[in-house]
Design brief:
alpha/beta, seven-stranded parallel beta sheet, globular, binds nicotinamide-adenine-dinucleotide, binds uridine-5'-diphosphate-4-deoxy-4-fluoro-alpha-D-galactose
C-alpha cells in the first residue's frame, strides 16, 4: 500500500500523522473542510516533509466531491480523523455531532466501497469506555458513552463491525486514543484549539504564554492519590507512529475488524501535569481548584498489551517530553496558526 487518503489531515492528530507517513515514504492525500483547522497547516506540512501534498478543501459529507478524489487518485487505504470532537459542545449541539460524525463516516464508507478501497483506520476514543469500573482499560471491556460525541464514536465502531461482518473484503482498525498532547519537534506544528481550550494541556500552555490568567482544576476530591483526576497522556508523535503501525498491520493481515487502545498505560494526575509543565515552562502555573466538571471520570488509563503484541507499537516519549514539546509550539506560536 502506498497511497493513503487522510480525512481531517490538517487537524491536530491528522497533521502529525501526515508528516510521519510522508517521512516513511507513503504518498498522502489530505481532505479537510477546515471547520477546525487552518489552511496554513498545509505549507507547514510541505515545508517539514519537503514534499508537495495534494489537499482537497472538501466536506466529506459531500459525496460527489469525495468521489472526485477517489477518481483522481489510486487510493490504497484511508485514515479517517475527520469529525467534531468537543464533548461539552456535543451536549449543546447533538444534531451537529450526529450529522457531521455519522454522515461523514457513512458517506466515506459508501465511496470507499464504490471504488473498492476497503482498508480503513478509524479514530475512536477512550471515551467509549463510559464510566469504567476497573483499570487498566482493555479493548474487551464494556463500553457505554456519556455524551453525544461519545455515542458517535461507539455507533461508528458498531457500523464498522457490521460492515466487516457483512463483507469479508473489508479490513478495519479502530484506534481508541487516550489523551493526546505534545507537538512536532520543530515547534511549528501543534495543537491550535479555537477559542478557550477545553483540554488540559492547551489550557496550561495558554496560561504559560499569558493568554489565560490561571488554570481551573476541576475537582480535588476524587479518590486518587492527590484528589485530582488521572489520565493516560500520549505524545501526538507516538500516536502518529501508532497509525503507521496500523497501516502496516493492514498491509500484512486480513484482520477484518480490530480495536486497539493507543495510550501509554500509565496515569498522571492534573497536579502532576501542572508540575511537569512548570518544569518545561520554567515558571509556576497559577491555578485555582473549582468544582468537578460534569462527566469527568476519576481515573482512565489503557491496557496497551494488544497494541504491543499485534501492532508492535508502544509509546516512546515521556510526560516531560510531551510538556516540553507542547510548550515549544505554544511559545513560538502564541496565537497558533492564525495570529
Ligand atoms: P481536530 O479537530 O484537530 O481534527 C479534525 C479535523 O477534521 C479538523 O481539521 C476538521 O477541520 C476536520 N473535519 C471535521 N469534520 C469534517 C468533515 N465533515 N469533512 C472534512 N473534514 C472535517 O481533532 P484531532 O484532535 O486531530 O482529532 C482527530 C480525531 O481523533 C477526531 O475524530 C477525534 O474525535 C478523535 N480523537 C481525538 C482526541 C483528542 O483528545 N484530540 C481523543 C480521542 C479521539
Ligand atoms: N482539566 C482541568 N482543567 C481544565 C481542563 C481539564 O482540571 O481546564 C482536567 C479534567 O477535569 C480531566 C483532565 O484535566 O481530569 C483531562 O481533561 P481533558 O479535557 O484534557 O481530557 P478528557 O480526559 O476529559 O478527554 C479527552 C478528550 C476526549 C477523549 C478523551 C479520551 O477531550 O475527546 O480524552 O481520549 F475522548
Amino acid at each position: 500500500m502506498n497511497t493513503i487518503l487522510v480525512t481531517g489531515g490538517l487537524g491536530f492528530i491528522g497533521s502529525h500523522t501526515v508528516i510521519d507517513l510522508v517521512k516513511q515514504g507513503y504518498s498522502v492525500i489530505i481532505v479537510d473542510n477546515l471547520s477546525n483547522a487552518s489552511a496554513k497547516v498545509l505549507p507547514v506540512l510541505e515545508e517539514l516533509s519537503q514534499k508537495k501534498i495534494p489537499f482537497y478543501p472538501v466536506d466529506i459529507r459531500e459525496k460527489k466531491e469525495l468521489e472526485k478524489i477517489f477518481q483522481e487518485h489510486q487510493i490504497d487505504a484511508v485514515i479517517h480523523f475527520a469529525g467534531l470532537k468537543a464533548v461539552g459542545e456535543s451536549v449543546q449541539k447533538p444534531l451537529s455531532y450526529y450529522d457531521n460524525n455519522l454522515i461523514s463516516t457513512i458517506t466515506l464508507l459508501e465511496v470507499m466501497e464504490e471504488y473498492s478501497v476497503r482498508k480503513l483506520v478509524f479514530s475512536s476514543s477512550a471515551t467509549v469506555y463510559g464510566e469504567p469500573e476497573k483499570m487498566p482499560l482493555l479493548e474487551t471491556d464494556l463500553t457505554g458513552a456519556t455524551s453525544p460525541y461519545g455515542r458517535t464514536k461507539l455507533w461508528i465502531e458498531q457500523i464498522l463491525q457490521d460492515l466487516c461482518d457483512a463483507n469479508d473484503a473489508w479490513d478495519v482498525v479502530a484506534l481508541r486514543y487516550f489523551n493526546p498532547l505534545g507537538a512536532h519537534k520543530s515547534g511549528d506544528l501543534g495543537e491550535d484549539p479555537k477559542g478557550i481550550p477545553n483540554n488540559l494541556a492547551p489550557y496550561i500552555t495558554q496560561v504559560g504564554v499569558g493568554k489565560l490568567e490561571k488554570l481551573h482544576v476541576f475537582g480535588n476530591d476524587y479518590p486518587t492519590s492527590d484528589g485530582t483526576c488521572v489520565r493516560d497522556y500520549i505524545h501526538v508523535l507516538d500516536l502518529a507512529a501508532g497509525h503507521r503501525a496500523a497501516i502496516t498491520y493492514l498491509e500484512k493481515e486480513h484482520c477484518r475488524y480490530e480495536i486497539f487502545n493507543l495510550g501509554s498505560g500509565s496515569g498522571f494526575s492534573v497536579l502532576e501535569m501542572i508540575k511537569s509543565f512548570e518544569k518545561a515552562i520554567g515558571k509556576e502555573i497559577p491555578f485555582v481548584v473549582d468544582s468537578r466538571r460534569a462527566g469527568d471520570i476519576p481515573v482512565s488509563y489503557a491496557d496497551t498489551k494488544k497494541a504491543e503484541d499485534k501492532l508492535g507499537w508502544k509509546v516512546q516519549k515521556t510526560i516531560d517530553e510531551m510538556c516540553a514539546d507542547a510548550w515549544r509550539w505554544q511559545k513560538k506560536h502564541p496565537d497558533g496558526f492564525e495570529p
